[in-house]
Write a structure and sequence with these properties.
Elements: H1 12-23, H2 29-42, H3 48-67, E1 77-78, E2 81-82, H4 84-87, H5 90-109, H6 116-130, H7 135-144, H8 152-177, H9 182-209, H10 212-215, H11 221-224, H12 230-234, H13 236-252, H14 262-272
Length: 276
């Protein structure tokens, strides 16, 4: 999948920034989730899910570009290369993020192989996931929680919004592309909601057990910023147990899909039991 391939910009510097992002598109786990959920529901590949997955990746990349800014998480390494505001400048990074967000919604609107009702529903799901009651709200709560201890219940709520909401949306739009029933959509969302939290728990574990070269981003940064994490709250072993429990919840949500959900189970395990 090449989420950046169709993008262009009349400004040479901004166009160069987009090419810079395209050189290292990341693991694209969210778009793989979109594709796999669509295939599990439909029992075959769903072409519309490719474009929907591209939209999800554009939104994810926008969130990373903005999260790395000095006013936010203030990081200088992402996907093994200098963050966009370091490679270019803050204004270019802000504009690139703004444009990626807009392009994502354009991509969803342009999916002609599904009905207008399906496109409208995808727009509703995705806009909620990245807005004030999703990713943006979660980021605000995360910033507000710096330099103080946060109980695990509050930590789960922060990451359900900041990280989990877009992961859940990625799965749900895949199901929508496959014309899933409401029961199937609900099962997919339960699955992805648990996977999203488990993914964040694993992120916290890797932040203290891995190094920057392996991660492609700055290791140990959360501890230096005095941020509450699953590791600081539950301990390293407790955090690992939390991830395993959430993974079990996710897999249990797929029971009604039977054996055809095996690719989704495999992807979930890769998302949680990863080393980078």
């Amino acid at each position: 999948m090449e989420p950046f391939a169709w993008l262009s910009c009349p400004d040479p510097r901004l166009a160069s920034a987009l090419r810079y992002l395209a050189q290292h598109p990341g693991k694209q786990l969210r778009s793989r989730l979109t594709l796999t959920c669509a295939e599990v529901v439909a029992g075959e590949s769903v072409p519309a899910a490719v474009m929907a997955g591209e939209a999800i990746e554009l939104l994810h990349t926008y969130s990373l570009v903005h999260d790395d800014l000095p006013a936010m998480d203030d990081d200088d390494l992402r996907r093994g290369q200098p963050t966009l505001h370091c490679a270019f400048d803050e204004a270019t990074a802000i504009l690139a993020g703004d444009g990626l967000q807009a392009a994502a919604f354009q991509r969803l609107i342009d999916i002609e192989s599904v009905s207008a009702e399906q496109r409208l529903e995808m727009l509703r799901v995705v806009s909620t996931a990245v807005g004030f009651h999703g990713m943006v709200g979660g980021q605000a709560l995360d910033l507000a929680a710096e330099h103080r201890a946060v109980p695990v219940a509050q930590l789960r709520e922060i990451h359900h919004l900041k990280t989990g909401a877009l992961i859940s949306a990625a799965a749900e739009v895949g199901a929508i592309c496959a014309n899933a029933s409401m029961e199937q959509r609900q099962a997919v969302v339960r699955f992805a909601s648990a996977v999203g939290l488990a993914f964040q728990v694993t992120d916290d574990v890797l932040d203290v057990t891995s190094d920057s070269a392996s991660l492609g981003k700055t290791a140990g940064k959360d501890e230096r910023a005095e941020k509450s994490t699953y590791v600081s709250t539950l301990g390293l072993e407790g955090a690992k147990q939390e991830a395993d429990q959430l993974l079990a919840e996710a897999l249990n949500a797929l029971t009604d899909f039977g054996e055809r959900a095996e690719p989704l189970r495999l992807l979930a395990r890769k998302m949680v039991h990863r080393e980078t």
